Amino acid sequence: MPEFEFRVEKVLDPSDKSLMPVGRVGTISTPHGDIQTPAFIPVGTKATVKSVLPEAMKELGANALLANAYHLYLQPGADIVDSAGGVGAFMNWDGPTVTDSGGFQVLSLGVGFKKVLAMESDTVQRDDVIADHKERLAHVDDDGVTFKSHLDGSMHRFTPEFSMQVQHQLGADIMFAFDECTTLLNTYEYQVKSLERTRLWAQRCVSEHQKLTLERSTKPYQALFGVIQGAQYEDLRRQASRDLGAMEFDGFGIGGALDKNSLGTIVRWVNEELPANKPRHLLGIGEPEDMFVGIENGADTFDCVSASRVARNAAVYSPTGRFNISNAKYRRSFKPLMDGCPCYTCRNYTQAYLHHLVHAKELLAATLLTIHNEYFIVNLVADIRTSILDGSFYEHKTEFLGRYGTGRAATNGQNSSELVSQVE
After folding, report:
1. Phi and psi of 323, rounded to 5°?
2. Is the peptide bond before 42 cis (omega within 30 degrees of 0)?
3. Residue 415: predicted pLDDT
4. How many CA atoms within 13 Å lie on the side-chain side of 355?
5. Dihedral (C-alpha) 96, 100, 177, 92: value to the nearest 10 degrees?
6. What is the CA radius of gyration of the chain?
């Protein structure tokens, strides 16, 4: 098996003939197996998809899992994961693994936003952003970030080199360069300054990655992806894509805070500039409608905590939108959780039983609902892949979103204008 390789198998012909084609189907080959793209990669933040066995993730069709460098560095420590044989061996997952750089968590937790970098769009922009009633826990300079642990208040320092060292110890097949993640509240002038900082950090990450790859030559090769920032600005997104696209990265992540109403436009800006022979990962995006937008505009892989997080709040994905199993109407419903769904949960458990587990605050509720939600998103993207291969993408998109949008509105689904989220 090759150390790392990306093969494009079919390119999606855009519905608007004035646009260049960027959506595609392909395969990413890694030392621990293939990722058939487009693919949704579930998030196991601390080397676990919360409440679910790794074996269950494999059964429901996940090609790969993503863990978080920031959290694993703080607990249990990257050296322990390294001694275990890497994050895959540590968590008993034999497929491909991914780690993010920790940059999002350092900065989002550091300014008090926690799960989303979401603010009102009409709020006054400024350079020094901090959430209301929060203490600043992270301080950025041109060399790196000094931050206070959200666990115990201890002080730590991440630089591009240190992020690479941590991620090499974690041993994932794919890892990300250290970047500064800004918010939509930051001024354009700050975005420009930050973009240059991220560009210089990217160069340092490549250099350190190459050095560590030689030093750890007995270990499987780890691919390094650069992260494209630039917020909502076309000139900055395109500039970042050209700058990082010229560097020795194996692939690219599209990151940063962005209004989902602009998601497709921003992803297309980036992918029109990036090398076509390298994979592109859309960080922190995972709602069903976003999958169609991202794939059509050239994203190959996705990760998001949403499927597991909303499951722990009794929310269930279905073809007609999300619904909440805690609602009273399910108390005596002995139908499967979702009719026609072949996942483990729907094959074996009723709506009434899951309603009961939620109200009894039983841990099994999170397990069974997470299995279903992850199955739904993983296989939604797999079905989109099939639709590109057989030429029915646009028909499939219209049919799915027609049903899902109606049900979503009726069940008060998550607001599609929420911003990128990567923390769980």
Report:
1. -135, 165
2. no
3. 40
4. 18
5. -30
6. 21
Per the structure block, which two tokens stand in for 36? 């058939």
Q: What is the mean pLDDT of each run of 10 residues along the chain (424 residues)?
A: 87 93 97 98 97 97 96 97 98 97 67 45 51 68 89 92 97 96 87 96 98 97 97 97 98 90 96 98 95 97 96 97 98 97 98 98 98 98 98 97 70 40 40
Phi, psi (rounded to 5 degrees) for 254? -105, 110
C-alpha distances out from residue 40 to 23, 280, 324, 385, Å: 15, 12, 23, 11
- Residue of 368, 284, 280, 293 whose CA lies nearest to 325: 368
pLDDT for 62 equals: 98
Q: What is the pLDDT of residue 105?
A: 64
- Considering the entire predicted model, what is its pTM? 0.91
Kind of pairing between the strands at 33-37 and 138-140: unpaired
Residue 105: count of CB within 10 angstroms of its CB:
25
Domains and CATH numbers, the chain: 40-311 (3.20.20.105)
Peptide bond into 38 cis (omega under 30): yes
Residue 219 corresponds to which tokens in the numbers above? 């270990």
Cα 364 → chain centroid? 25
Catalytic sites, residue numbers: 100, 303
Place of tokens 């992918």: 271
Six-digit token pair at 174? 């794919």
Q: What is the CA 9 to chain-centroid distance, rounded?
A: 23
Sequence letter at residue 247 = M
Query: What is the per-residue pLDDT for 381?
Result: 98
**DSSP assignment string, 72-141:** HHHTT-HHHHHHTTSHHHHTT--S-EEEE-SHHHHHHHHTT-TT-----TTSPP-SS---TT----EEE-
Q: Report the C-alpha gap between 352 and 68 in whole angstroms.
A: 35
Say what the pLDDT of residue 103 is. 75
Task: Report the Cα–Cα distance between both ends of the chain, in Å, rounded.
Answer: 33
Looking only at the bridges linking them, the beta strands covering 33-37 and 24-30 are antiparallel
Beta bridge partners of 140: 145
Q: What are the tokens at 101? A: 């750089």
Per DSSP, the three-state class of 157 is strand
